[in-house]
Amino acid sequence: MAEPSVPSPASSDTTIDITFTHHGTPHTLTLPSTSTLTDLSTLISSTLSIPISNQTFMINPKPGILKPPFANPPLISTLQSKKIVLLGPTVTELSALSSNSHPQSLSSSAPHLKPVQPSRHRDWKKVQEEATYTFHAILPLNYLPNPSRSHKFLERLRDDPGIKASMRKHKFSVGVLTEMNPAEHTTHESKTLGLNRNKGEVIELRLRTDAYDGYRDYKIIRDTLCHELAHNVHGPHDRNFWDLCKDIEKEVRAADWKSGGRAVSNEVFYDPEDRWGSGGHVDGGGWSGGEFVLGGSGSGTSSKGPAQMLNRREAMAKAAEERMRKQREAGSGGSA
């Protein structure tokens, strides 16, 4: 009598649907339930004509930003409940960009014009480095008022000559630069100004005032960004971290040709030297876990932490503005 056949496990015959968004359009693909993100990437390449080398997945919540080849690709089944955004041009889009930028297209449509020749004096190595060591995505919070203004603010930070120069020097590559919702990072005791997740996967910055009716001072936010960039290398706030943070701030100011590397007035609004006590110990207040916190009590040996110093700088800035206003009203025309 023949033995009955053993049925194969149900998991080998089951499939799973995974949905992701590309260019604002949702797509749903079906794969075996045992598939990984690598299998999804391969299927996307064949069905949507997006080369694997051009694909970047933004998965929220974690694992965050992933780009092929994946060291430890997660199972698709673990991603079903997450929001997945796919970044990357299709083959058709790449071809269109290539044809539009080809000099022949210009000469054929306008024979009397000479094709533009590539500049021999342009630093192409610098251009390539700036495309590599940058913020690869900018995301304002669309549910807050006037997200277009936040987008422009983030673009200004990304394109800041000093920030670009420092990121090239240290080879910093950040997945996403986004804004922080003040309501989610404010307590009675403290306000978080910046956050670096997973050493450069995502950097969040507090752009807005607490009442959402305005934006904070650009240079204060840029200094916060310098702090968060230092967390790409050092997690804890030890001496190595503060040395790097201080170097980045100096590099950003020196390379900012738009301001000539100098402040726009004689008032001192922010001085990284103030973070250190006379004994040279690491500041003990306000900064924790990759977050730049304004108003935190902290614990340490320094009597004045960066949070308290930043509060004082903002107060000085407001006082300077008030003095300049009174001087203008009085017709003195003198400097503050």
Summary, kept brief:
This protein is of the alpha/beta class and 336 residues long. It is built from nine helices and eleven strands.
Explain what the structure shows:
The chain is an alpha/beta fold. The chain has two domains: 13-92, Ubiquitin-like (UB roll); 125-330, no CATH class. It is 34% helix and 15% strand. The chain has nine helices and eleven strands. Strands 6-7-9-8-11-10 form a six-stranded mixed beta sheet. Strands 2-1-5-3-4 form a five-stranded mixed beta sheet, covered by helices on one side. Helix 4 (124-132) crosses helix 6 and helix 6 (161-170) packs across helix 8. The longest helix has 25 residues, at 306-330. The chain is globular. It starts with 14 loop residues before the first strand and ends in a 6-residue tail after the last helix. Residues 97-119, 296-336 are annotated as: Disordered. Pfam families: WLM.
N-to-C order of helices and strands: EEHEEEHHHEHHEEEHHEEH
Radius of gyration: 26 Å
Q: Give the CA-based shape.
A: globular
Distance between the termini: 104 Å
SS class: alpha/beta
Uncertain segments of ≥5 residues (pLDDT<50)? 4-12, 100-110, 261-289, 295-313, 332-336
Please bin the fraction of helical residues.
25-40%
The largest β sheet comes out as: 6 strands, mixed
> How many β-strands, per DSSP?
11
Number of domains: 2
Question: What would the average pLDDT be, to the nearest integer?
Answer: 74
Counting DSSP H or I runs of 4 or more residues, the number of helices is 9
Order of strands in the sheet with most strands: 6-7-9-8-11-10
Oligomer: single chain
Q: Give the percentage of residues in beta strands.
A: 15-25%
